[in-house]
């Protein structure tokens, strides 16, 4: 029996219309004559969704008793007995009640599919197992019901049911998703614009990845080796050499010619780790390509051209950028090189061969690539010079027992032994010397360099050839063994370096200390050029300054170190203790790159810390001058005019007129007093000297008190008396509430009361003050919290615009947050978030 087909409607959040789309599809198939039944659907009381059930056959649910209650679940047995062509089963990630046939509904669906029944189902992006923790980090709500990604990926069709966050919130506000009593809590928590936007992006990215997988699977299943230019993708191959910068610039220009083209950089590391790449070049080039909006990749392969083309075809690349070979012209005569081979095998991928300064200059080989150490070669020559005569004497004494083939085997053993000690060249010397000794002492005619018998000549020739071959193989094996051991240690060091990300003020010192411990050095110093470079400045300590050092006496210039590594412009890592071999430079370069990054991060943090108070102080100073020069004059002028009128004896004021003038003077002076107090508080906030007495407070008690101080109506308070207490200063929090309520009342229409609600969110409580005024455009929401800003106030003479700025400053001083947000249906909501536990002291 053929397995049924699975179709999934994927949504970013509840309420986007997945169940509605599923039922609509079921109705369409039923109208076409398909046998469709409803296995399980949750309408959640939504009338339009429930209306789609009319005309569809519904399989009765089974009742499962659990802990004294009864629950209804999908009746798989009844559905299989009914055996429809298509079954509609809602909520794929649902967890069944214990006692059901399976623990999860997706397992029920698998059983139905195995029976040959097509299934249409729904799932939200937050229920995918791989994204479960990501969604919890975004929304703060743990998802206990999950479905394995593989179950969804195996579906024959996955269709995204999409809806803009603002549209979904409007549906929520109109009561189309949840009951009215749940709307405010939902909008305040899970259904925030930021949450919905992030979930929507997750859904789109996940589905885009699945589309790419489907395309790759289709091409693989149909043996399509060529690329399909569904999207322009430019791949640039990096060798880890300095020419990579030139290749990246050229590849960027190629990608820029096609709007929307992807840029991918790839480095092919040989499986044996014997490539000549430099970590500092790769690190810089990786930063460059990521800064250009591209992506960096690294693959491992023995055959570099094939590995490169396999990667290009896997990402459906359309163009490949390679550098002209650095190998010399003679070397290219022997082997065509990676560029030529890649071009020959590229097929439908366009290959660009880019010239550069390093082209045809030859490959710089490390000491390890050139052979074994000089000490071992000398020892091998010594063994050959001493051993061959001794071997000859020994074989000559045993001449009555051994024949020429036996003598040849002994000399061949000597060749192998010398090759193991010193490599190829001592082994070649041993082979030719052995040939001469065998010919002179053991091949008739004796003591003459002639051979009488043809078979003896063939035997000697084979001895030389075998000696040459064995010496080459043994030499290569010995070198590779030595290189593998060194690279194993190097890989372990780099793995430890990559696995321990260093942060904080002491990151640079910790990194240098790890380098010193790794190689057993006396001192490691990071130097920076303090003066412009001159031909003689390399060894002059006056031209360098020590940025960081660990160990003993630091190096004051690069020339004082035993080994030095240049890092970028004007930075040198100098080490003292012992000269390090060339094969360790790759590890040193990796440490140097990390050290430069740590230094850069440390300085950026220091500059940011310095600039922050200076910028704030400058902004505050300018604002204070503006306020004193303009806004403070208005109440002062009003009070002065009223007082001067009262003391004018030439005018006879009536009692009512005198009372009105006094009231004007009083109101102006009170306003002036409030402005001065606000200005002083802003100054204290900027200076960090505002005194606070934080203690547990009840918002249910403090909000009405603030409203009384405000002395105005038009505010509807709906607070739960069981709200957790918040940590705040009562006097400062009351001033914040008065400012926020006054601002909301001032902008809200007279017939639309300001609504005050609150809800707990993890370790915080969010107080929401929602008005029905004109709101604030998203682009102006940061400006509204700057001092002396009045955006579209109806009355531009009621203050100097310190209310919201002071409110945010006081809130943040108490460890809270003040965030503006659109009110569903129009208006502005100020969200005051305060901790329920004491904020951590910095």
From TrEMBL:
Its EC number is 2.7.13.3. GO terms for cellular component: cytoplasm; plasma membrane. The keyword Nucleotide-binding applies. The keyword Nucleotide-binding applies. The chain crosses the membrane at residues 378-397, 409-437, 457-478. InterPro entries: HATPase_C_sf, HATPase_dom, His_kinase_dom, HisK_dim/P_dom, HisK_dim/P_sf, Histidine_kinase_KdpD, KdpD_sf, KdpD_TM. Keywords: ATP-binding, Kinase, Membrane, Nucleotide-binding, Phosphoprotein, Transferase, Transmembrane, Transmembrane helix, Two-component regulatory system. It is a multi-pass membrane protein. It is an enzyme of class 2 (transferase). SMART domains: HATPase_c, HisKA. It is found in: Cell membrane; Membrane. It catalyses: ATP + protein L-histidine = ADP + protein N-phospho-L-histidine. Residues 627-838 form the Histidine kinase domain. One of its GO terms (molecular function) is ATP binding. Its main location: membrane. SUPFAM superfamilies: Adenine nucleotide alpha hydrolases-like (SSF52402), ATPase domain of HSP90 chaperone/DNA topoisomerase II/histidine kinase (SSF55874), Homodimeric domain of signal transducing histidine kinase (SSF47384). Signal peptide: none annotated. PANTHER family: SENSOR PROTEIN KDPD (PTHR45569:SF1). This is histidine kinase. It comes from Actinocorallia herbida.
């Amino acid at each position: 029996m053929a397995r049924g087909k699975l179709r999934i409607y994927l949504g970013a959040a509840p309420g986007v219309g997945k169940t509605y789309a599923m039922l609509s599809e079921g109705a369409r198939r039923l109208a076409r004559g398909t046998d469709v039944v409803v296995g399980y659907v949750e309408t959640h009381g939504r009338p339009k969704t429930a209306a789609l059930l009319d005309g569809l056959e519904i399989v009765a649910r089974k009742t499962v008793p659990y802990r004294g209650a009864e629950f209804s679940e999908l009746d798989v047995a009844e559905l299989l007995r009914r055996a429809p062509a298509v079954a509609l089963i809602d909520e794929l990630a649902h967890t069944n009640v214990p006692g059901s046939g399976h623990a999860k509904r997706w397992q029920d669906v698998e059983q139905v599919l195995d029976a040959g029944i097509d299934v249409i189902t729904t799932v939200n992006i937050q229920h995918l197992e791989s994204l479960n923790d990501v969604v919890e980090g975004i929304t703060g709500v743990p998802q206990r019901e999950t479905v394995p990604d593989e179950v969804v990926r195996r579906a024959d069709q996955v269709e995204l049911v999409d809806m803009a966050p603002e549209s979904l919130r409007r549906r929520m506000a109109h009561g189309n998703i949840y009951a009215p009593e749940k709307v405010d809590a939902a909008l305040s928590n899970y259904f925030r614009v930021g949450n919905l936007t992030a979930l929507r992006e997750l859904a789109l990215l996940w589905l885009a990845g699945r589309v790419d997988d489907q395309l790759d699977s289709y091409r693989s299943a149909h043996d399509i080796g060529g690329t399909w230019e569904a999207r322009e993708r430019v791949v640039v191959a990096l060798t880890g050499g300095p020419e990579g910068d030139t290749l990246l610039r050229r590849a960027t220009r190629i990608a820029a010619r096609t709007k929307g083209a992807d840029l991918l950089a790839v480095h092919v590391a040989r499986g044996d780790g014997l490539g000549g790449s430099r970590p500092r070049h790769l690190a810089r080039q990786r930063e460059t390509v990521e800064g250009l909006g591209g992506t960096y990749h690294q693959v491992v392969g023995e055959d570099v051209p094939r590995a490169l083309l396999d990667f290009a075809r896997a990402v459906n690349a359309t163009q490949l950028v390679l550098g002209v070979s650095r190998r010399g012209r003679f070397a290219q005569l022997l082997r065509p090189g990676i560029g030529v081979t890649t071009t020959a095998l590229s097929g439908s991928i366009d290959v660009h061969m880019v010239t550069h300064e390093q082209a045809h200059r030859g490959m710089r080989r490390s000491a390890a690539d050139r052979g074994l150490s000089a000490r071992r070669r000398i020892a091998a020559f010594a063994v050959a010079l001493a051993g061959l005569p001794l071997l000859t004497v020994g074989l000559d004494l045993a001449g009555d027992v051994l024949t020429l083939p036996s003598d040849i085997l002994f000399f061949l053993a000597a060749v192998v032994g010398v090759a193991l000690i010193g490599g190829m060249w001592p082994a070649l010397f041993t082979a030719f010397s052995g040939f001469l000794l065998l010919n002179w002492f053991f091949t008739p005619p004796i003591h003459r360099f002639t051979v009488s018998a043809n078979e003896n000549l063939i035997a000697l020739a084979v001895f030389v050839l075998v000696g040459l071959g064995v010496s080459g193989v043994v030499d290569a094996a010995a070198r590779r063994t030595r290189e593998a051991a060194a690279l194993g240690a190097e890989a372990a060091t780099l793995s430890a370096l990559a696995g321990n990300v260093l942060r904080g003020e002491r990151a640079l010192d910790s990194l240098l200390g790890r380098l010193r411990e790794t190689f057993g050095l006396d001192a490691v110093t990071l130097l920076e050029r303090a003066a412009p470079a001159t031909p003689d400045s390399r060894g002059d300590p006056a031209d360098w300054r020590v940025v960081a050092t660990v160990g003993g006496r630091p190096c004051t210039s690069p020339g004082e170190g035993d080994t030095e590594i240049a890092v970028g412009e004007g930075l040198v890592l100098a080490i003292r203790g012992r000269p390090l071999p060339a094969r360790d430079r790759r590890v040193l370069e990796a440490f140097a790159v990390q050290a430069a990054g740590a230094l850069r991060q440390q300085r950026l943090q220091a500059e940011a810390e310095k600039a922050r108070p200076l910028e704030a102080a400058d902004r505050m100073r300018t604002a204070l001058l503006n306020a004193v020069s303009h806004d403070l004059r208005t109440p002062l002028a009003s009070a002065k005019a009223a007082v001067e009128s009262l003391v004018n004896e030439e005018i006879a004021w009536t009692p009512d007129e005198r009372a009105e003038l006094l009231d004007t003077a009083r109101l102006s002076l009170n306003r002036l007093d409030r402005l001065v107090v606000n200005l002083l508080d802003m100054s204290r906030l900027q200076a960090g000297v505002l005194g606070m007495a934080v203690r547990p407070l009840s918002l249910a008690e403090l909000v009405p008190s603030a409203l009384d101080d405000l002395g105005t109506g038009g505010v509807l308070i709906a607070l739960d008396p069981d709200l957790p207490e918040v940590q705040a200063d009562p006097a400062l929090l009351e001033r914040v509430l008065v400012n926020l309520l006054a601002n909301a009342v001032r902008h809200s229409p007279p017939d639309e009361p300001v609504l005050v609600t609150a809800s707990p969110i993890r370790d915080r409580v969010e107080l929401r003050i929602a008005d029905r005024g004109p709101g604030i455009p998203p682009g102006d929401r940061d400006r509204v919290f700057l001092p002396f800003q009045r955006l579209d106030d109806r009355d531009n003479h009621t203050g100097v615009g310190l209310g919201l700025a002071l409110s945010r400053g006081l809130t943040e001083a108490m460890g809270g947050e003040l965030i503006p947000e659109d009110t569903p249906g129009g208006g502005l909501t100020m969200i005051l978030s305060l901790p329920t536990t004491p904020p951590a002291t910095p």
